[in-house]
Amino acid sequence: MMTPVHADEAQPERAKDLRYGWALYEYHQGNAFEALTQLAVARERGGIKGHGDHPALVEGGLMLSWGMTREASRLFTQLLGADGAGSNLSPDVRNQAWFYLGKVFYLEGNQALARENLNRVDGEILAEADHDLFREWIYLRSRLVMMSARPDDEPELASLREQLDETDIWSLYLRYNSAVSALDAADGAAAEEALKKLIAILDQSIDSVEPDAEREGLLGRARLSLAGLYLRDNQFEAALEVLGAMPLTGVFADQALFDYAVAAAGQGRPERALDALDTLANRELFLPWRQQVPFARAYVLEQMNAPQRALPAFKKAADHYQARIRELDNIRDRLNEENLMAQLEFSRDSDGILTDSYGRLRVQPLDSGMAEVLASETFQQALAELNELYRMQSFIAERQSRFESFRIMLETREQQRQIRIAETRRALETQQADQWQQLHEDFTDRISSALADEDAGFFMTSQQKALRDKLAEVEKTLADLPDDATTARQRATYRRMRAYFDWWIADDYGINRWAAQKQLMQLDREMQSFQAQRQRVESLMADDARHAELARRIAASERELATLGTEVSEALGSARQTLLAQVDRMLAAQQQELNGYLLASRHAQARLADQLFRASQNAGAGDE
Questions:
Q1: Coiled-coil region(s) at which residues (predicted)?
Q2: Please, are residues 603 and 301 in contact by the beta-carbon 8 Å criterion?
Q3: Which one in 120, 302, 348, 358 has a CA-CA gap of 20 to 30 Å to 326?
């Protein structure tokens, strides 16, 4: 729909944000729903970086293509500002945004919003950026002025039409619409003049070597409208002249043949009318409006004063209408979505059904009787909505199928966790943590008791303990020796050594005590760390919060998806009913019209049968 470009910044060669690149990929693939989803996810996760207002502009275009016109209008207004200058987007891009938004509202029949948005477009900038859009913009504004039907709008309409060449296709469409407006206003003379001028311009502008199908179609429509105007005023000769110039292979050839028959009959040339109706009756395509042809053919035969030919023609017409009514009854009785879709041929590619820039499906009817309802805007919108709902349902079903994979992943993760827990428990058992804890507690109790008793011997160093043991051996040896002078001297020496040792132990008591307490504090810290780690391991083995949170999120998502699936199913049912109701109303209208033709055919058949019977009776009486 539009190309995002910054006013003062070169267009990036590649997406600077991966999420924006993903959304653009879906956008250019025509997947509006997926692209909108990616943009919404990116917005929830902090937005798209490095692209300014481009993502919002793309999102607005996607909303338009998906039929979300109100949401797109709010987004564009918020993005660009009421005056169109609230963004750093280039003026030509802003113009295109307002143009497409106004065009969508025009197609929806919302004239006020269409006019509001189209008036925001800068014509000079649009003409320089895209002249084709500029011409269409002039046409849309002109049509809105014509629809308003206010006398003070005439100068504006004249000013707008002057900006288009006389032979421009949009100018020609305006001429035709002016003629239609004149007819609506019961101004037949103005309508006739406008149609004649249009036909003259088209006759001169159509290239005979490479004819333009669109111009030829408009020429056929203009001639058919002019002939209809003449028929309304009983100007049969003028109508025949206009209709005679129409080709028998054009888009409006069938309607032209029927109108030609009406004009010929009105002019008193029933033979020519019959020839036209016979040609029309032999056509394979039988549109709903042509159901009147069998009755019209029989009526012309009656007007030709050929009751013997008219009576079987009316009988054939009545049989046709009765068969068609029964056929429509059967269609209405068997009308369902499957049968309806079987009558439609959708244009597809590898990604699904193709759509135009405004979200309408590219579809053609296999049954010509569907053309009328298929051409209506409400049916097109309902059909597009049904298609998108089916896509959403498929998307939901795909996501729901993945939950089984998630559950298998959770079960596998839980099994692996149990294996790791068993391995961890075996490792903890080899560490003998309880025994180490008991030894630590015993050691702490012994130190506390020694501190309470001020037991200096408990806090002796290894050197002091070795000396104590040595002194104990000396004391034991001296006790076994006999008493003599030498032994007395040795015992005196031992007492001095023992006294020095006791003094040394008492003197080093504070130092030794602090050294023991310091080691105890280090051991306490290590044991606390050891116990904390052990408790953490036990806690992790007892409860896996991450696993539980993941399972909770999956369960919550599954419930939300199930709720969304239910809502989509309900919306699908409503969309189906809307489509089927429209088709049923169309079929009912056709039946009602056929009933009228059937009744008229039966009456004519009875009238002619009675006329022929009376004629035969009168002839018999004359013979007598």
A1: 318-345, 513-567
A2: no
A3: 302
Q: Which two tokens stand for residue 560?
A: 């939300």
Q: Which residue carries 């009545």 as its tokens?
A: 318
pLDDT of residue 599: 92
Distance between CA 214 and CA 221 in Å, rounded?
11
Q: What is the rounded CA–CA span in Å between residue 172 and residue 139?
A: 10
Q: Are 99 and 137 in contact (CB under 8 A)?
A: yes
| Cα separation, 63 vs 71, whole angstroms | 7
Question: pLDDT tens-digit profile of 535-566?
Answer: 777 776 666 677 777 788 888 888 888 888 88
> Who contacts 16 (Cβ-Cβ below 8 Å, separation ≥6)?
49, 50, 51
The count of other CB atoms within 10 Å of the CB of residue 599 is: 12
Contact between 201 and 166 (Cβ < 8 Å): yes
User: What pLDDT band is residue 504 in, cutting at 50, 70 and 90?
Assistant: confident
Whether residue 6 is predicted with pLDDT greater than 70 in this model: the reply is no
Percentage of residues of the chain with pLDDT beyond 90: 4
- Residue pair 77/394 in contact (Cβ under 8 Å)? The answer is no
Residues 390-397: what's their mean pLDDT? 82
All residues at 6 or more sequence positions from 79 whose CB lies less than 8 Å from its CB, including other chains = 53, 56, 57, 60, 86, 87, 89, 97
Residues 198-210: pLDDT tens digits?
Answer: 999 988 887 655 6
User: Residue 344: helix, strand or coil by DSSP?
Assistant: strand
Mean residue pLDDT of the chain comes to 80
Residue the block writes with tokens 């008793």? 453
**533 Cβ contact list (under 8 Å, min separation 6):** none
Assign residue 234 a region: left if phi > 0, alpha if psi is -120 to 50, beta otherwise?
left
CA dihedral (41, 47, 50, 53) in degrees, to 10, reads 100
H/E segment holding residue 180: helix 169-184
Rounded Cα gap, residues 457 and 470, in angstroms: 15
If pLDDT is split at 50, 70 and 90, which confidence band does 368 have? low
Alpha helices in 119-250 (DSSP H): 123-129, 131-148, 154-162, 169-184, 188-205, 213-232, 236-244
Task: Name the pTM for this structure.
Answer: 0.60
- Report the alpha-carbon distance of residue 121 to residue 114 in Å, rounded: 11
